[in-house]
Structures are given as structure tokens and as C-alpha cells.
Specification:
Elements (H helix, E strand, L loop, with lengths): L22 E2 L2 E5 L16 E7 L2 E13 L14 E9 L10 E6 L4 E5 L2 E3 L2 E8 L14 E10 L2 E6 L6 E2 L2 H12 L10 E2 L14 E2 L5 H16 L4 E2 L13 E4 L20 E3 L2 E2 L2 E2 L2 E3 L23 E3 L4 H6 L14 E4 L11 H16 L4 E5 L3 E3 L8 E5 L1
Antiparallel strand pairs: 1-2, 2-3, 3-4, 4-5, 5-9, 6-8, 6-10, 7-9, 10-11, 10-12, 13-14, 15-16, 16-20, 17-20, 18-19, 21-22, 22-25, 23-24, 23-25
Helix pairs in contact: 2-4
């Protein structure tokens, strides 16, 4: 039976290590039942504690804490493989120096988790890093988490004590670190921290495999979309009122309203419908006048410029925004350092828009021009697929790529 690919996702970006107690033979295991209740300065309760009678004297082995060595965050056991994991244990009772005889073993869980480095150690402290055995072949599905089981063992003449987290409490990656691990695995130039991970304000900005995205500049995708949208709407409403409405023109053939600035290879595109007996000069495209408006027989300017007042929302024409590295590889992107993986790029397909006076090629050029004005000439271009660059008026162009 196929398992839900998000079975492993954590509800937040922090976690607490939990352990359940058990009794095995003459051993007694205790669990962390909550915050310490001792007086001031009392140590916190251990994660796992095992006590056994050795030579008539109780000896206790306690696994006290496990955490990721990461500055600026709360204690957590999620990780990426370039970060160190630290575990501490203590021994109570028995002869002096037993704490130095603690033997640690770290076991990977699942084929996706590579060997720990180191996999064994001795003493009261364990410091290790995980390794990834995940494929880098591209995928539309989320990666499984890397996870490890940590065991502390104390071998004595009268018996062996073993303290380990039960199967429900492995050191396991949370969703934010599963996503960050992809950047480590692919060796990208940009390596995101937790501050670069967020839930997008608009789900349309997420074309990745997870419920969260990475942005090199937090909030940049939303801003890029808003900026390009504002510029598209300026271009669609930039006709010029040459003769004021109600004013007599020099002649019936005088221009009353002229199109705005030229749109790349398409020239100037009109955004106004003639009124009264004013005349549209030039082609009608998609039901709208695409050219100059002249005064007409009465010689009076009857037409206000930009009276179509077109307003366009670009959100519904987003075909790609953030993509995680595995998704980026799956769709055939030519670079592991794509701006999409850094939350710095949008793909927009305006062919589905229906705007009077504009056909699909003209709209492609309008969006590309808007991107150029927002991000610069080198950062806005028309494409077919992820790697074929085209002129915006090429019928094969299927989207405009805009990046910061």
C-alpha cells in the first residue's frame, strides 16, 4: 500500500524528544515525564534512564540530552548533515570513572540515511554528523527524512546497561530540514538557514514538493510578483491624450489618442476604444482597437484615453515560482543554482489572458517588458520550457521568466 508522502511532516519547525519507559527483566527504565520539579539548580530529568543492580549496588545510566549544535535557535533534534548532533549521558553509582566507559552507537534508520560520522564513540559526550544516501535524480515527491537511533551502553562485569530512545523518538529531520537537506545534497551555492524557510503568503508561489518554500531574500517572491503586476497594468493603460476631450482638433484626421511607448518587437499598442464619431485607425485585435484614435467627421475629440481601464492579476498565470532542488532537476532545469530554487524567480504565461486589443504574442511582450522595467534587461526573457530562449513574439514562447 502506498504511504502518504507527507506522513512524516512535523506540524512546526521545532520538536521535543519524547521517550516511553519500559521494564525489561531486572532493569528499570524511567522516562521524561515533563519539566523538572526539583529546586533551584536541579538538573532536568533525563530522556531515558536505566538502573540495574551490579554487585549489590544500583548503577544508573541516563541519556540526558540530544540536540543540534546550531546557534540562534531553540533546542531541537532536527538537523541537516553539515550540522553536528550532540548527546550527553551520565552514570550514577558504581565505581569511579564509569562515565568514561560509556559506549555510543549511532544507527541510521532507512535506506535514505547514510552512516553517522562517527558511528561509535566512548565517554560522556557523543558528537556526530549524519550523511545522506538520498538520490539526486529529480523528483516530484518530497524526500523522506534522514533519521538516526542513538544508543548509550555501559558494559560491566555484573551486567550491561543500555539507554536508547524508543522507535518513536529517533533523531529525525523535520520538513524545514528535509527541504534544506536538498541544498546540501546538491551542493548549491546558496545554502539556506531556517530564517530562509517560510510558508508562502500565496500558495501559487510554491511550485515545490513541500508545504514550505525557501527564499534567499524573505518576501522577495511576493514583491517581485506585485512589482511586475503593477508594471504590466501601467503598460496596459499608457495611451496618451493628445487632444483634450470636447476640444476641436485641427482636422478630422487629427490624432486624439495615441498609443503609449513601443512594446519591444510589437511596436506601440493601443488601449483605448473610440467614442462618439472618433475613429480607430489600424487593426482590431481580440475585439479591441489596437491603434491610433482620430477625431472623425465632426473634428471633435470625443474619446478619453485608456477608457478600457484594463486591470490584470498575474497570480493566476504563474506557472512556476519557488522550486526545491529535486523538483528543479525533475523539470529539466539546466542549473542547480536556478533562481527558482532561491525564491528569486517567476514564470508567467499570459496566453490565457483575454484582453481587448492584445493577442497572445503581444501579451508575452508586454509581460517581458514589464519584467525588464522591474528587474533589468538580463533578468526578463521569454522561453519555451526551462532552457530554450525565444523572442517574445515567437509563437513557440510559452512563458516569460522574470528573476531578481
Amino acid at each position: 500500500m502506498k504511504r502518504n508522502p507527507r506522513w512524516w511532516l512535523a506540524a512546526g519547525l521545532t520538536c521535543v524528544v519524547l521517550a516511553t519507559g519500559c521494564k525489561c527483566g531486572t532493569e528499570e527504565a524511567k522516562e521524561d515525564a515533563g519539566p523538572a520539579t526539583g529546586g533551584s539548580g536541579a538538573p532536568p530529568p533525563p530522556l531515558v534512564e536505566v538502573t540495574k543492580d551490579i554487585g549489590g549496588q544500583p548503577v544508573t545510566l541516563a541519556l540526558t540530552e540530544i540536540f543540534t549544535r546550531r546557534e540562534g535557535t531553540t533546542a531541537r533534534t532536527s538537523f541537516v548533515t553539515r550540522e553536528e548532533m550532540v548527546a550527553h549521558a551520565r552514570v550514577e553509582g558504581g565505581e569511579p570513572g564509569l562515565v568514561d566507559r560509556i559506549r555510543w552507537t549511532v544507527k541510521p534508520v532507512g535506506t535514505q540515511s547514510g552512516p553517522a560520522v562517527p558511528a561509535v564513540a566512548t565517554g560522556p559526550e557523543l558528537v556526530f554528523k549524519g550523511t545522506s544516501a538520498l538520490p539526486r535524480t529529480g523528483s516530484r515527491d518530497p524526500n523522506p527524512p534522514l533519521e538516526y537511533e542513538v544508543v548509550a551502553t555501559l558494559v560491566l562485569e555484573g551486567g550491561t546497561l543500555e539507554a536508547k530512545l524508543p522507535p518513536t523518538s529517533f533523531i529525525r529531520q523535520e520538513e524545514a530540514d528535509i527541504l534544506r537537506q536538498e541544498y546540501v545534497d546538491y551542493g548549491t551555492t546558496f545554502q539556506p538557514t531556517l530564517t530562509n524557510v517560510s510558508v508562502p503568503g500565496r500558495t501559487t508561489l510554491n511550485r515545490g514538493n513541500y508545504s514550505i518554500i525557501v527564499e534567499e531574500k524573505p518576501g522577495e517572491l511576493e514583491k517581485l510578483l506585485s512589482d511586475v503586476e503593477a508594471e504590466v497594468n501601467r503598460i496596459l493603460n499608457d495611451d496618451v491624450q493628445v487632444v483634450p476631450v470636447g476640444t476641436r482638433a485641427a482636422s478630422p484626421s487629427s490624432t486624439v489618442v495615441s498609443p503609449g511607448q513601443a512594446v519591444l518587437m510589437m511596436g506601440a499598442l493601443g488601449d483605448t476604444e473610440p467614442k462618439g464619431d472618433d475613429v480607430c485607425v489600424g487593426a482590431r485585435v481580440n475585439g479591441g482597437c489596437a491603434g491610433v484614435i482620430r477625431a472623425g467627421p465632426n473634428g471633435i475629440a470625443d474619446t478619453p484615453a485608456n477608457n478600457r481601464a484594463t486591470r490584470v492579476s498575474l497570480e493566476r498565470i504563474i506557472t512556476s515560482a519557488f522550486r526545491n532542488p529535486q523538483r528543479n532537476k525533475f523539470i529539466g532545469s539546466g542549473t542547480i543554482n536556478s533562481r527558482h530554487t532561491r525564491g528569486l524567480a517567476l514564470d508567467l504565461d499570459p496566453r490565457s489572458l483575454s484582453i481587448p486589443g492584445k493577442d497572445a504574442r503581444q501579451l508575452m511582450c508586454v509581460v517581458e517588458l514589464a519584467g525588464i522595467r522591474v528587474a533589468g534587461e538580463d533578468n526578463s526573457f521569454s522561453e519555451n520550457g526551462p532552457v530554450t530562449f525565444l523572442d517574445c513574439n515567437d509563437p513557440a514562447a510559452d512563458h516569460v521568466h522574470v528573476q531578481r
